[in-house]
Design goal:
mainly beta; 4-stranded antiparallel β-sheet
C-alpha cells in the first residue's frame, strides 16, 4: 500500500535556496530548505546525493529574500566558501529571484552547503523550475 500525505506549504515561513547544474539557472535543480529562522541547516555530500544533486555539480543558484546560502568546497562545511545573501530581487515588480551564476567563481566545486532563514525575515520572491516534476513555488509578503 502506498500512502500520499499532502500538507500546506508556506513559502514565506520555509525558505529554500535552489541550486542548478547549469549556468543561468537552467538544467537540473534541487531545493535545499532552511530550518527554523536563525538556525543554520547544513547539507553534506550524502545529503546532497540523497536529494539527487551530485558532488561538484552546482553552477548557478537562486536565493530568496531573507535567506543566506553558503557553498563549501569540501564536505562537512569546510574549505573555501562562497556566501550569498538573498537580499536582491531580480525584478521587483514581479518578485522574480535573481539568478547568481557562479561559473567563474565557484562552479562545480560545491561539496556541502548551508541554508539559513534570517530571524524575523520571511522568504519573498518566486522561483521556477521549468521542465521538472517539482513545478514552481511562489511567495510574497
Amino acid at each position: 500500500m502506498t500512502t500520499l500525505v499532502i500538507k500546506n506549504y508556506d513559502e514565506a515561513s520555509n525558505s529554500a535556496a535552489i541550486v542548478f547544474i547549469d549556468s543561468n539557472c537552467t538544467g537540473k535543480s534541487v531545493a535545499f530548505f532552511a530550518g527554523s529562522p536563525g538556525v543554520v541547516r547544513n547539507y553534506n555530500i550524502s545529503d546532497m546525493s540523497h536529494l539527487s544533486m551530485s558532488n561538484d555539480a552546482i553552477s548557478s543558484i537562486m536565493v530568496p529574500y531573507s535567506t543566506y546560502l553558503t557553498l563549501y568546497q569540501d564536505d562537512g562545511n569546510r574549505g573555501n566558501s562562497v556566501f550569498v545573501d538573498g537580499a536582491e530581487r531580480h525584478n521587483a515588480p514581479n518578485q522574480l529571484l535573481k539568478c547568481y551564476d557562479i561559473q567563474n567563481i565557484f562552479s562545480d566545486r560545491t561539496s556541502s552547503l548551508s541554508v539559513t532563514q534570517k530571524k524575523g525575515g520571511a522568504a519573498i520572491g518566486e522561483w521556477r523550475n521549468a521542465g521538472s516534476a517539482t513545478g514552481s513555488l511562489k511567495a510574497s509578503i
